[in-house]
Amino acid sequence: MLKQECEEKTVAYLGPRGTYSEEVAYQIHTGNQVLFTAYSSIDAAIMSVVNGVSDECVVPVENSLEGSVTITLDTLALVENLFIIRESTHAIRHNLLVNPQNGPVEVIVSHSQALAQCRSYLQEHYPSAQVKAVQSTAEAACCVASGMPNHAAIGSLRAAKLYELDVAAAGIQDNSYNSTRFLVLGRKPAVLQKEPHKTSIVCQIDGKKPGSLCEILQEFARRNVNLTRIESRPARTQMGAYIFFLDLDGSLADYEVFAAVKAVQEKSIWFKSFGSYPVVDTSQPNGERL
């Protein structure tokens, strides 16, 4: 895909039209001159930024019910010169979308995370239905709109409108507090403002040395730097080797944060910083900043 000649910022997202990623991308860039481009997968959207086709991308990274979106984490760990420039948390409200011409519902399609977030509803109301995962909630809506017999989709109200589907049931997620964190990624670090920030890093430590993870965590504790998240993923080098993603309150402009991150870097076999970035939570009333 070639980057179109234009003056607008180009923003990639997980498509097709009607995904929650698109909805978040539009909200983040309300009032801005932006050219939005849909990609068929999360890693494709990220790589469009890495390869210079897009200026930014909006991708999901974690859901409050089902945990991390591992393809986002794994792709972030693999690529170079990519920074997190914003985090935005949004409430997710799933809906059962149908095409009356398709007949009774026997197959329900959606993104794997959406299906998991509606597991109890599906077991109660459609225990005999086949559940199939596709690349996105919008792709599921598109499949149902195309007339696939006996199919229904789980997706957003925007997807229902775009693909002219009926909402058979609204708000079917198993938890009313269902929300997803989205990251905005770019090739340059965020410009630090006078507002709350997070900082994110990923590192690999010597797993054969007893207490090596404890030593890393103590670098933050002794400087009173709050870790908000720690998660391990396979390093993909050998069995039993792991990398650790760490999110912490504050920015690298803060001395204690900078010192802690520097100490972790010196104790790591491999290290990468995604920079510091502002955090917005629109799942809260009035989109409060955290």
Automatic annotation (TrEMBL):
Gene Ontology molecular function, alphabetical: prephenate dehydratase activity
Domain (ACT) spans 201-284
Q: Kindly give the SUPFAM superfamilies that the UniProt entry links to this protein.
A: ACT-like (SSF55021), Periplasmic binding protein-like II (SSF53850)
Q: In which pathway does it act?
A: Amino-acid biosynthesis; L-phenylalanine biosynthesis; phenylpyruvate from prephenate: step 1/1
Its transmembrane ranges are: none
What EC number(s) does the entry state?
A: 4.2.1.51
- Provide this UniProt record's keywords sorted from A to Z: Amino-acid biosynthesis, Aromatic amino acid biosynthesis, Lyase, Phenylalanine biosynthesis
First and last residue of the signal peptide: none
What name does this protein carry?
Answer: Prephenate dehydratase
